[in-house]
Every structure is written in structure tokens, then in C-alpha cells.
Amino acid sequence: QLEMAIKYGFPFLFQDVDEYIDPVIDNVLEKNIEGQAGRYFVRLGDKEVDYDPNFKMYLNTKLANPKYQPAVFGKSMVINYTVTLSGLEDQLLSVIVAFERRELEEQRERLIKETSENKKLLKDLE
Length: 126
Fold this sequence. Notes:
The chain is α+β, with helices and mostly antiparallel strands and 126 residues long. Helices cover 45% and strands 17% of the residues.
């Protein structure tokens, strides 16, 4: 199925990936696309699979804090979608305050930005 997705430019999802990622897909992760006589292909194991530029590959894990090898982080973009109850509460409160009292939410956003800038300044001065 991965070969078909690569060939026809479909998205492909690996679900429940653990900390080991099979090296067979390294060329896909690294986007090692080769061209020859107007034909683009990627090596998948010992096969040459035609490559469509619309192809996207997603790896999904249920691990809270996966410890991938540094090479994996270099070959891919890792996005942490972990959601906590307090984070959801903050987001909900922010939406409600923005709806009920817009000026208060704008002040909160300004203060968060100032705090961030002050932390950066403090770090630079140390």
C-alpha cells in the first residue's frame, strides 16, 4: 500500500509507531528522490518506486514522549499534539474572555508577549 501511495501521490499514515522506525523507509523520510529520463523514483528497500510529488507520509504514535534517534528528528518534522486538562481549560477561558471582554483578552495577550520578551532579555543579560 505504501508503494501505491508513493506512486499515485496519496497520503499514507503509519499508526501506533513505536520508537523503532524501519530503515526501509529511510529514503522516503530523507526524500532521496532520484530522476532518470524524466522519471522520478525513490528506492524503497530493493525496489524503485515511481514518485509523485503530492505524496505525504505521516507517522502517528500513542507514546507520550517518544525517544526517537536524532537522525529521525533530522529527517522529519515532529509535532507534539499532547493535550492536558489545564491546557484545555486555559484555551476555553481565553475564548470566553475574548468573547465577553475583548479588551481584557487583548491585555492578557500583550502581557504574555511582554513577559516572553522580558524573559529573553533577562537570558541575554545573564
